[in-house]
């Protein structure tokens, strides 16, 4: 029987291996994905934002987007170490329908998705939820509470989004580290429960 490799300090090397988990942060156009990843990432996030132009005005509906001037055209990327053994790699997808082809590559190897939702634009979340389900990814819903929007009860949101009873739903502010971390942890806990 072979011996397990041991480091100089007597710790089994296999016990030091970190587990990397790929998590998608998805949602419709202008829901706060770039902000969320920027808030949660322990490294300077990779962003592929471009300035919006008049040429895209007929394609991207800016109603209710509160002064948005840039948009993600490929992806956002960030990293978050949860423990000595677990590191999350956060991949943010573009929200516009014309970038859907990017999703197929991004879903490969992903353990799950955190779907950001604007409570004032719930209808825009349906195609996103459909895509996540199409790719078979388990997901949690994070309602990004924007300034001045009234809070809505979880059961009302659950019914409006037609969610299964076990699908986690949590409210966050993508600009706030604590509430964003809580949203992310709701997904991580859900993924852990599914593997037991």
Cross-sheet strand order for the largest sheet: 2-3-4-1-5-6-7
End-to-end separation in angstroms reads: 30 Å
Number of helices: 5
How much of the sequence is in beta strands?
25-35%
Could you tell me the mean pLDDT? 82
User: What's the total number of strands?
Assistant: 7
SSE order in H/E notation?
Answer: EHEEEHEHEHEH
Q: Describe the largest sheet.
A: 7 strands, mixed
**Gyration radius, in Å:** 18 Å
Poorly predicted parts: none
Helix content: 25-40%
Gross geometry? globular
Question: What's this entry about, in short?
Answer:
It is built from five helices and seven strands.
List keywords for this structure.
globular, 5 helices, 7-stranded mixed beta sheet, 27% strand, 7 strands, alpha/beta, 196 residues
Helix-strand layout with pairing:
Blueprint (H helix, E strand, L loop, with lengths): L18 E9 L5 H8 L5 E6 L18 E12 L4 E7 L7 H8 L2 E8 L8 H9 L4 E6 L9 H8 L7 E4 L4 H19 L1
Parallel strand pairs: 1-4, 1-5, 5-6, 6-7
Antiparallel strand pairs: 2-3, 3-4
InterPro entries: Gliding_Motility_GTPase (IPR052705), Gpn (IPR004130), P-loop_NTPase (IPR027417)
Protein name: ATP/GTP-binding protein
Keywords: GTP-binding, Hydrolase, Nucleotide-binding
How is this structure best described in words?
With 196 residues, this protein is of the alpha/beta class. Helices cover 27% and strands 27% of the residues. It has helices at residues 33-40, 100-107, 126-134, 154-161, 177-195; strands at residues 19-27, 46-51, 70-81, 86-92, 110-117, 139-144, 169-172. The radius of gyration is 18 Å and the shape is globular. Keywords: GTP-binding, Hydrolase, Nucleotide-binding. InterPro entries: Gliding_Motility_GTPase, Gpn, P-loop_NTPase. Pfam families: ATP_bind_1.
